[in-house]
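Protein modeling request. Please complete all fields; requests missing the sequence field cannot be processed.
Requester role: graduate student
Desired output: 3D structure, token encoding
Chains: 1
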Amino acid sequence: MNPRKLRACFLLLALIGLLAAFFPSWRDRPVTSLDEEGFAQGCTVIMVGKGASTDGSTIATHTCDCGTCDWTWRHVPAADHKPGEMRRIYHINQYKTWPPEEGLKWDLYKRDFTGLEIPEVPHTYAYHHGMFGYMNDQQLAIGESTIGCVRKLHNPTPTPAFDITMLTLIAMERCRTAREAIQLMGSLAEKYGYGYNDHGEMLAVHDPNEVWVFEIVPVGPLWTPQSGKPGAVWCAQRVPDDHVSVCPNESRIGEIDLSNKDYFMASEHVVSFAIEQGLYDPGSGKPFSWKRAYSPAEGSATSTNGRRARMWRFFNIVAPSLKLSPETPNMDYPFSVKPDRKISVQDVMNMTRDRAQGTPFDRVKGMRGGPFGNPNYYATTRTICTPSVEYTTVTQCRGWLPAPIGGIVWLCFGLQDTSCYMPLYAGITDVPDSFKIGDHWIFNRESARWAFDYVDFHTQVVYSYALEEVKKAQAEWEAKTVAGIGEIDKQALERYNRSVEEGIGYLTGYCLTHADRVVKAWWKLGDDLLVKFNKISYYDPEKRTRDRNKPVYPDWWKKAIQIYDILLEPPEK
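Delivered output (573 residues):
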């Protein structure tokens, strides 16, 4: 070998040795849901136990934050199956989409058959799904958040048959309770492998009685079914009935007590596998912590410059009396807390619109929001409400009603602060056609999502003014619906008691008609915003005179521009 190349090799080896001595093993670094700059690419889940809600329902959310993902929804009807029938298992990539001319995602994903078929069950339940299964006709509900895992456990090979989307669909088809769903998903992942499209994932799994946090990670790229070893490791913890919790793309389960079966479940090798992989040392004297072993996420709201501020902000909203500091490491926050006051479903919707207003992480603080206080300009701080969201779900389970009436998926498309939550009851037999179509790259007036993006786009121009118009529409179409849902329940229950089919038909008609009206209202709202704030001016169509008034630019903005212009002047001036 050339002497110069030989010296270079020795230097490289020496450098690797130094790195190994001073830094943790690269393989033990966490693969999280944050990119290299620390910007979140995942979703926020808020959870409310039945004793913490104002009406005794359990509630969970999913802000489906992606920016380029498929946003379409489908309804899968219930079905009866003959002995010997098999259920095909597919790889489903959360993020993959196809051009509309090729077809719709929820048809095309079947091209990616894993080769695995499992025995069908005699009856599968009906359910609604978008990127994941969200609610079935038994009031089983799910929300998702990517949490990542230590790098060496990531398994990007196609060997594992299950990813997180497929697990949720199977749970929707076969399970009635949160506990059943967790046990089924965990056992399938262990037997047939978990990974490929996904690494560490969290699911909020709830029914009318309980809310659980279920977390799962792969076991590395060398796993095969022939190894005889489990193809996944998982853990679950129940949220106390009178508590609330959150998952902002960070593992939430810490120390576990598997003897307390009312609050913990896990794969049998949950501790032994961590020891085997060098992720936990039982001789350290420290108790085993699931998140510190499998998905550590260091940093606080303050130390990350607001990139990890959602954890602190949630607890700041629901339990300000605790006075938790934004400097508290996120790994040290409690799993759940008792809120200072009980929380309604409208409160939860409002939380999904939170921008850390009035805190050090406020996106419009100072000049960040421009002259019209637009929180979408300054993207360093990661808030619960974020421009990359495809849709948001608020799943609500109410045990005092029959399951088809008691369960509701409240769904809003696009950015939460300019959208509107619409109810989809658990028992309805279809979702609106406008929910089933649409694509980021092709404008389509037949797609519901584009109606909400249309409003959002026209809100951005003069945000503080336009948002007031949006809030009026939300009060008309969302707040009134939430307040009046009890009357819809009553009407549905009267019909349901006479005939199940009549009750389900009433609910289906109501949901489809209501969604159609909201979508039409949002198209009109977008048109109105375009006219009213055209040319960054104010055209008031309600006035008889045809005057034009410009929105008032604040004095601080004008002064800031003058100061900035002076700073840009050449030094000689």
